[in-house]
Each structure stands twice: as structure tokens, then as C-alpha cells.
Amino acid sequence: MASDPTALAAHLKKYYRVDIPIASDGRIEFAWTRRNSEAILNQLRERFKDLPAGSKVLELASGSGEHLTKLAQQMPNITFYPTEGDSMLLPSIDAWIKYSNVQNVAEPTVLNFGTQAFSHPVDAAWVVNVTHISPWAHTVGLFTNLAQVLGPNAWLGIYGAFNRNGQFSSPSNKDFDIDLRERNSEWGIRDLETVEAEGNKHGFVLKEVHEMPANNLFVWFRRDT
Ligand SMILES: C[S@@+](CC[C@H](N)C(=O)[O-])C[C@H]1O[C@@H](n2cnc3c(N)ncnc32)[C@H](O)[C@@H]1O
């Protein structure tokens, strides 16, 4: 799986409006992925550490693939399934798999979580930095489609910027929201209560809310029985 670096750089600049570094082997290096990576990986490791060996864990919107492959290195007994809506990012996920030398990661696949269910049942799932940078309909689709592949008691982790009771958690998140909405009128920081209510409609119950660095939250839903 190879990509044209010039075309990829232009594609990323159009979406993110800044230059994104791409390593010579095709690995995309998003600054924000790296910045909060340790705290995010700690959450994921803690949550998945009691899963039985051989469990299958799905990531939606894997982006570059950096988070998933780092987690896979740390949890060799679990099989991880990277997916991404943007097919141009798949070569980067593939390059991160090779770079990390992990054997427990499935081939990355294109999946729009807003409109499609994953191809088979999994034991847990997570998504990072996406609910604010995609239309609300995609979050509705996220719960709808995950309800088809996550069984009773399965965990779903969602990380990102959220409002609480209609309030921004910081001035920087307010500015971020304005910027997002200028870029796409369907994007914007969501109220956690609205996300929770949507999850409830699809059988997901909000169990834990963790404060994370830079005014982000890691929220954990559990599929009811
Ligand atoms: C800000 S990036 C986050 C990437 C990665 N999770 C991370 O934290 O580094 C947002 C990603 O969400 C993906 N995305 C947005 N809507 C999606 C959808 N409906 N289905 C799958 N991927 C989607 C975009 O293609 C992009 O890669």
C-alpha cells in the first residue's frame, strides 16, 4: 500500500489547514496525536487490560494509525482493527503497523462509522478526536452501527472536546468551536448530555467521565445487557 506523498500532503493541508509532517516511509505524524498520546493510551490500556487474550478491539477513525499501533505494541494479546473513513490515510496506518513491527493488528479498512457497521462483532471499540470534527449525524450513526457489533457489557470509549450542560470547558475550546464551525457548519463541539442521550437510545450507558489534559474528556459507555 503506497501513497503519493505530494498528493497526500496537499490532501491533509486542505482538511487541516496546516502542513502535516509525513515520514519518508509514509507515516503521518499529527502533532495532536502525539501531544496527548500518553494520557489516551493510559486510558485505553487500563480499560482493556482485563479483556481475555484473543479479544478483538476496533478503532474508528484511526487517522494516522499512531495511537492504535502504539497500543498494540503494549497489548500483544489483543487483536486491534484499525478503520478510517478517509482512504488516503490507509497507507499511513499500514506504515505505522510496519514501523511498530506489530503482529496483532488487522489490515486497515475504509469504514465510515456514520453510515456503515464494521464487518464483524468485536469486544470493545474506541474513537478519538472525531465527534466535534464530523457532522452530528455521524455520532448518531456511530451508536447505531456500533450497536450491531458490540455485545452486552462491551465498552465504547470516546475521547475529545465536549461541553457540559451547554457550557464550554475553557476559552480555548470556545475559540476551537468557532474555528470548527467556520470550516464546516456541520462541525462543532457537542454537549456531553446530548451525546449521552443519543447513546442511551441505542443501548449505550455512560459509565465514566475522565478529565484529560488540555480540557478534553475520555468518556466510557457500556452496552447494556
Ligand atoms: C482529527 S482526526 C483524528 C484522527 C485520530 N483518531 C487521532 O486522534 O489522531 C479526525 C479523523 O476522523 C475521520 N473521520 C471523520 N468522520 C468520519 C466518519 N464518519 N467515519 C470514519 N472516519 C471519520 C477523518 O477522516 C479523520 O481522519
UniProtKB/TrEMBL annotation:
Gene3D superfamilies: Vaccinia Virus protein VP39. InterPro entries: DUF938, SAM-dependent_MTases_sf. Belongs to the UPF0585 family. This is Uncharacterized protein. Pfam families: DUF938. It comes from Umbelopsis ramanniana AG.
